[in-house]
Every structure is written in C-alpha cells, then in structure tokens.
Design brief:
Length: 354
C-alpha cells in the first residue's frame, strides 16, 4: 500500500509514499461556538500550510444521553472534569448548520474539509455535503455498525487507533473494507489529553504498514512538535494536530492544541526526536486506561421490567464504556431481563437469562 488518491473538486490529491506529508488541522470545539473563530481557525490552517481541516459531526444526543448519574460524570482532564458527558459534548460540538459554510470556506482556501461522524445520521448528513473522505475516531473503532455505514460510502477512511488493540484494529479495517471502503489509513494515537513523550511510542508508526498493509500516520495529542517530527522520521504519511488560535483563550481541546505560529518551531524539535521514538507498542498504557470509559458500550436507555425481552428501544451503543462490548448487541437482543433495569444502567450479562 504505497499511496491513495482523493478526488476533490479542484483535482486529485495523493497521500502516501512519494508525496508530501498530509497535514490535518483538527478544529474540534476550539471555536468555542463562535463561527467567526471557526473561520479564523481555517485561515490559520491554510496560512500554516495544512492540507486539510477536520470537523467533528455529532450532537450530545447522538453521542450519549442526558443523564447525570455517576457513570456519566467526567472525572479526568482538568478542562473536562466536573461535567457530565452530555454537558461536555454540548460545549464541544460543532453545529451542523455550520458545516456547509465551513466546508465551502475551507475549499476556497485550497483545503480539503472533512469530518468525523459519530453516528449513522452524521454519515448521511456528510454524504449530502459531499465530503471526500472520513475520519473514524479512536473511541468509535468498536462501533461496528457505524464502521459499516462509513464503509458503505465507498470513500477513503482515516482511522485513529488510540485505546484499540491489535486485533481490534484488524477487525475495524476488515469491517470498513468489507463494507465498501476502498482504502484505510491508520493513525497511531495515544488517547491521553495531553499525552507525554514517554507515552508516545512513535516507532509504532513504522510498524503499522508492515502489520496491517495500510498507510500510517500520527494523530498527535502531545504538546509541541517533537512527536510529530519523530513520526515523520518513522514514515508517517499523515499528521493530525489540533489547532487553536490562542491556548490561553481556552476551549475544550485548547490545552493540547497547536497555535498557528508554532509550526515555525518544527526545526527546533529535531534534537528531541530520539526521545519520542520509543518502541513498537499496541498496549494500552496506564495513563490511557482512565479514558477507557469514553469507549462505547451497551446501555439501557429505556426502563425495562423484569421478565421483559430486550428490544432496540431499550438499549443503545453509546458512551461511556461501563456496559457490554458493542459486539454483544446482536446476542442480547430478545433476551429476557432478570431484574428491573432503569434508564442509564450499563448492561451486563448478569442482567439477562443465561
């Protein structure tokens, strides 16, 4: 797998061997719900020489439920702690009504503008906008129904592997490709916010193509540019970095985002490259494990009485990750529950008849 072609209204773009590193500026929620800041972030990305701008397409209701019990409390990351998941995503999401305008604005600047969909309705919405490729977030790699929907668009997919084991990476790649996805790019990613250099294990970037026969890159949540530089030294074809106009101004992801002028500091990081190289690793580190709760799992979203069969109305695959693995969904549908279950309860095998 040497390179892939992305068809855009302004001509074909290539990612991979023999082509410049494809740099993605991730806007995330750093616009702070001000569309003018979103436009300014796109300007900054273009001025810095990025190739693409990435959005995130979700609403609080497509990602989780409005529930304030202990399962839904955010207890990590100073910028996020103290909120429920619903409150966090309400703060961080990008209004869907902005997407068309932001995409057009970015394309005027010569950028590819695409997004990470977090549910099937978001995929349908982005298809209507005509995005050229998709991103799969690391916390969504286990949502096989979502992957099948994304794959069915027959567009290239960039997928982050944070908190995803080696077998799960292969399963995600196979699911996407068997559903119609022509090409998958896998980004090494450490799901800590921010991640430190000792966690990064950037050497994994070089191992991904050998192990999975895909193009590799880095989705970088570390501070500075050391890890990104090391990733390029290890053959990264894609770099993804969050961008903010000013870290001190705040924002849900500002603490681990890159200011526009910091791109000029790239040369100064070369002497630190060896520190970030690390070793090939698909293990979930101790620091990462605190974020396992953000993976999707099966939750009760409608009260179920003892003796009732479980239906799709009763359960959903949502964040957080305290319930059953999403792969168990087909096997538990129709099962009889052994006790009353309230909305917001993480489903377990103990709740159903054997």
């Amino acid at each position: 797998m040497n390179s892939i072609k992305i068809q855009t209204p302004k001509g074909d773009r290539y990612i991979g061997e023999g082509h410049p590193v494809f740099v993605i500026a991730e806007l995330s929620g750093n616009h702070n719900h001000d569309i003018n800041k979103a436009f300014a972030l796109i300007d900054a990305a273009a001025d810095a020489g990025a190739d693409a701008v990435k959005l995130q397409t979700y609403t609080p209701d497509t990602l989780t439920i409005d529930c304030d019990n202990d399962y839904f409390q955010v207890k990590v990351n100073d910028a996020w702690a103290g909120k429920t998941l619903y409150e966090l995503y309400k703060t961080a999401y990008t209004p869907w009504e902005w997407h068309e305008e932001l995409k057009a604005y970015g394309e005027e600047k010569g950028l590819i503008v695409f997004s990470t969909p977090f549910d099937e309705t978001a995929v349908d919405f982005l298809e209507e906008l005509g995005v050229e490729l998709y991103k799969v977030a690391s916390f969504e790699t286990g949502d096989l129904e979502l992957l099948k929907k994304i794959g069915s668009t027959k567009k290239p997919v960039i997928m982050s592997r944070g908190l995803t084991s080696e077998p799960e990476i292969q399963r995600a790649i196979d699911t996407l490709k068997s559903s119609g996805c022509p090409e998958v790019i896998v980004l090494h990613c450490i799901s800590s916010y921010p991640a430190n250099l000792e966690q990064m294990n950037v050497a994994t970037v070089a191992d991904i193509p050998k192990r999975f026969n895909v193009i590799s890159g880095l989705s970088d949540h570390s501070l500075g540019l050391v890890a990104a530089t090391a990733a390029v030294a290890n053959g990264a074809a894609v770099l993804e970095k969050h961008i903010t106009l000013d870290r001190s101004a705040g924002g849900p992801d500002a603490a681990f985002s890159l200011e526009p002028d910091e791109l000029k500091a790239l040369v100064d990081t070369v002497q630190d490259v060896s520190k970030a190289m690390g070793t090939v690793s698909y293990e979930i580190g101790e620091k990462e494990k605190e974020n396992l709760v953000f993976r999707r799992s099966i939750f009760v979203v409608k009260d179920i009485k003892q003796g009732e069969p479980i239906t799709r109305e009763h359960v959903r695959v949502i964040r957080p990750g305290y319930g059953l693995d999403p792969k168990e969904l087909p096997s538990i549908l129709g099962k009889i529950v052994t006790q009353d279950l309230e909305r917001g309860t993480p489903l377990s095998l103990d709740h159903v008849e054997k």
